[in-house]
Amino acid sequence: MSASRSDASSPLRPATLAVTAGRPAKEPDAPFNAPITMASTYVATGDLEYGRYGNPTWSAFEEALGALEGGRALGYASGMAAVTAVLDLVGLGSGVVAPQHAYTGSVMALGDLESRGRLHSTLVDITDTDAVIARMSEDEDCALLWVESPTNPALEVADLPRLIEAAHELSIRVVVDNTFATPLRQNPLESGADIVLHSATKFLAGHSDVQMGALVVRDEAVHKALKDRRDLTGNTPGPFETWLTLRGMRTLHVRLDRAEETAKDLADRLEQHRAVTEVRYPGFGAIVSVVVEGGGPAADLLVRDTRLWAHATSLGGVESTLERRRRWKAEAATIPEGLVRLSVGIEDATDLWTDLERALDRIAPR
Ligand code: PLP
After folding, report:
1. What distance in angstroms lies between residue 26's CA and the mean position of ligand 1's atoms?
2. What is the CATH number that goes with domain 252-363?
3. If you average pLDDT over residues 47-70, what whole number do you get?
């Protein structure tokens, strides 16, 4: 395997790492791409032994993501599988502080564990740094600060360096869900985070054809704890899914640059449209949330009326999608009924705006 950010003799930039990391060594007749290894077992007495403990296709993916995030990666069956793997590290009776607008699945996983008496959680406004620090200080059993930045779908941005420093002063571990920012826009490990989490289903894989998750860490003991738990729980990705995700990551920088350029343009145009009362865009990335005039019913009309933009949940694919988030019962009540989350793809920006503008015009006739 080749190319890593930590190779001080030739520090490679992220776009180069996305293309080169995790490839087989360049030897005569070596394949360019790590092959898909379909194996439930291996000849005994080697390093792998059994399919649940390791797989060369996972190793290629983990090397590539580890190089991009600046740590050691582990692949999981889905983003939620990675979420539950992190929560599994929290000791019985401990506390977790988490964003009130974190991905609904993460908040639901916390609620599930809380309802079974495993831990307690406090949901916070992750942009109110002082309040987050106060909540952590008040709970002497707090063991984990959960950060998602930007949040899904409110697109709030957390002050990572301050939160991480404060958490560590209180001996609290920090996980950052980096799904929206991707390793190309934010490297939380460099700010001192203990664990980075990805729903690889989204931007990393990028083609709406895979479910996969990942964690990235620097600390050897945390890596071992997670790897040992993964061996025990069997919370592992399929080799084919892993290969597809790695293939998607080869173009992450190109896809993200293009989608982000369009997202910035659309965010500006949406600000001007009379049907839109609020645009939420953190200034980077490919997700834009808008709140439309007329609330839930108007938002339902909007998602029904676009032709190019597909009405679908999930995000981060090459094709543009949109969704009214409050259609999900589990979405936080503080998310406006009329909030529509746009996942900007890589189609022509003018075509995307033409389609969106036509649908917006229909919900706010002159
Ligand atoms: N984290 C974030 C920010 C997400 O948006 C999602 C899914 O939408 C997840 C985690 C869960 O990932 P998955 O759907 O791959 O299980």
Report:
1. 35
2. 3.90.1150.10
3. 98
Give residues (CB < 6 A) around ligand 1. 78-80, 103, 105, 148, 152, 177, 179, 199, 201, 211, 213
pLDDT digits (tens, 9 = 90+) for 289-307: 999 999 999 999 999 999 9
Cβ proximity of 152 and 178 under 8 Å: no
Q: What is the pLDDT of residues 261-288, one digit of tens each?
A: 999 999 999 999 999 999 999 999 999 9
- List, by residue number, the catalytic residues: 52, 103, 177, 202
Measure CA of the first residue to CA of the last residue in the chain; give whole Å.
60
Instruction: Put the strands of the sheet holding 213-217 in their side by side order.
Output: 72-76, 213-217, 195-199, 173-177, 142-148, 94-99, 119-124
CATH architecture of 14-249: 3-Layer(aba) Sandwich (3.40)
C-beta of residue 126 within 8 angstroms of C-beta of residue 107: no
Q: 287 is written with which tokens?
A: 């997700």
Compute the distance from residue 365 Cα to the ligand 1 centre, in Å.
36
H-only helix segments in the chain = 14-20, 56-69, 79-87, 104-115, 129-138, 160-169, 182-185, 220-233, 239-249, 252-272, 295-305, 349-363
Residue 366: pLDDT band by 50, 70, 90 thresholds?
Answer: confident
Q: pLDDT digits over 142-155, tens only?
A: 999 999 999 999 99
- Domain ranges, ordered by start, for the chain: 14-249, 252-363
Atom of ligand 1 nearest to the CA of 200: 15
What is residue 349's DSSP assignment? H
Determine the average pLDDT of the residues in 172-187: 98
CA of 253 to the centre of ligand 1 (A): 20
Helix (H) or strand (E) holding 13: none
Q: In this structure, is the dihedral angle defined by the CA atoms of residues 153, 158, 163 and 165, taken in order, positive or negative? A: positive
**13 vs 5: CA distance, rounded Å:** 8
Model confidence band, residue 2 (pLDDT cutoffs 50, 70, 90) = very low
Mean pLDDT value of segment 61-71: 98
